[in-house]
Amino acid sequence: RKRQKGCRPKRSMSSFFPVKLKKLGYCGLPRWMIDKDFSTVDMIFVPVNVKNNHWSLVVVNTKTFVLKLYDSLVRIEEIAGYMELL
Questions:
Q1: Domain CATH code at residue 48
Q2: pLDDT at 14
Q3: What's the Rg (C-alpha) of the chain?
Q4: Which of 34, 73, 74, 86 has its CA 20 to 30 A from that of 57?
Q5: Which domain, by its residues, includes 38?
Q6: Exposure of 18 by Cβ count < 10 A (0-12 exposed, 13-18 middle, 19+ buried)?
């Protein structure tokens, strides 16, 4: 797929990624996940299901090593466990 001029590469993760990571750790990640080269992307979008009734979005900036949480309802304490894993 051809990239538009000025657009930086991004990648989105499966909504199962945070659940698997929290439950199984890095060694439990699927092979397709481990083989990905994240050094070529600037941002990674990770959807997180909070308490099975609300979605949040964690954005990982791989260039600045900054995690941002986008959510209008959830307090940071409710998602802190997932943020620590990333």
A1: 3.30.310.130
A2: 73
A3: 14
A4: 34
A5: 10-85
A6: buried
